[in-house]
Amino acid sequence: MFKLIRVVILLTILFVVASNTLLDHSRATNWDRALYVSIYPLLAAGNNSAASARFLGDLKLRTFAPVEKFFSRELGRYGKNIDRPVIISLHSVIHSQPPVLDAGASRLATAIWSLKMRYWAWKTSSSTDGVPGDVRVFVSYHPAGKKELLERSTALRKGQIGLVNARASRSSNAKNNIIIAHELLHVLGATDKYNLANGQPIEPDGLAEPKRNPLYPQRVAEIMAARIPTSKSQWRSPANIGQTMVASKTAREIGFLGN
After folding, report:
1. Do 201 and 165 share a structural domain?
2. From the centroid of its chain, how far is CA 130?
């Protein structure tokens, strides 16, 4: 009975936290005011690299300025004029790890993980410096120079949370910013625009310039595809966020265009 009471109390706390952290989607994407985004850096689990720790200690807010500029530029292309539609704040390095979602987890296990993630994000952001923004993005930095692929980053619309896997090096900042913007757009309701099996952008929604003639090669990447297709079956990675843009379907999903 005591164990059952503990479970009920925990679920009640998680429910309250989830309710308190839910930002109404329509308010987040009507773009009549700035969206405040808090970035929380942390060392990835198992990353004991002294170089990575120094990198996090040297992080500056200006590192993420290209993400702000991207939103300002793209929102302006759709006729909405806000000087800084996204305002980023950088918080202190955090030293706890987010809950892990096992590969192949069931829908129930995923739902429980989501609640745990929202509770962890609330507890973590409440105990660090500064007031959390509308959206909280936790950037988990892995050692630089590793060859293995990073795990896919994650975003939760309920709770307005992003969990980004990134590399801890200055040379990786440009690509890290693409991932941060991509996951932030997931939080706001954008869907992936690439084939999960092979990474190829999906026509036409995954193309930045779907009316280009000839269609290939494309010159830039649609941000939710995050790849520049050079043919129907080949692509290359954008070097920086300046080589990406928001195409029309994504624009509708996040409120840049009427739904």
Report:
1. no
2. 20
